[in-house]
Amino acid sequence: MSRYAGHVQIVTTAHDGERRGVTITAACSVSDSPAMVLACVNASNSKNAIFEKSGHFALNALAADQIHLANAFSGRDPAMTPQERFALGDWQELATGAPVLKNALAAFDCRLVEYKVMATHMVLIGEVMGVSFGDHRPALIYKDRGYHTL
Ligand SMILES: Cc1cc2nc3c(=O)[nH]c(=O)nc-3n(C[C@H](O)[C@H](O)[C@H](O)COP(=O)(O)O)c2cc1C
């Protein structure tokens, strides 16, 4: 998988006053009518249970100038609290209440329509209820265990 070039995204949700965001590359489009996307997050991390509980998620596709967000939401500094991680970005809510990154290249606000644990990961399938776009600029890609720009 290190040879696979993936767009770096942050999948987010919120439930009972708690927000959660995880840096991922395992995400893609599923269908266009209705618009659906999927994201895969590690099921062995108990903090990810919130994605099922909340019933919604947002997929925020990062731009090259947002490496600091990718690092923060990948737990690189384990001492950082969720509040500190979210404080690094500017967030809004669209239709579902999931945190949507205002200046993401593109952000998809989704209601969870299917949830399935597949071996180590949970697959979240969402119907897109809202979309937002930041400025059009280079994307943040992960390949060969490092960040790249496209
Ligand atoms: C470039 C990159 C891609 C990642 N892709 C995924 C992914 O697709 N799914 C996943 O569950 N974790 C992925 N991770 C790891 C998670 O970001 C990390 O385990 C998680 O954010 C740890 O969060 P925590 O410290 O809040 O538990 C990726 C990390 C990086 C740096």
Automatic annotation (TrEMBL):
Keywords from the UniProt entry: Oxidoreductase
Which Pfam families does its entry note?
Answer: Flavin_Reduct (PF01613)
The GO terms describing molecular function are: FMN binding; riboflavin reductase (NADPH) activity
Q: Which InterPro entries match?
A: Flavin_Rdtase-like_dom, NADH-dep_flavin_reductase, Split_barrel_FMN-bd
Recorded hits in SMART domains, A to Z, give:
Flavin_Reduct
Which top EC class is named for this enzyme in its record? oxidoreductase
Q: Which Gene3D superfamilies match?
A: Electron Transport, Fmn-binding Protein, Chain A
Q: Which residues form a coiled coil?
A: none
What Enzyme Commission number(s) appear in the record? Answer: 1.-.-.-
This protein is called what? Flavin reductase family protein
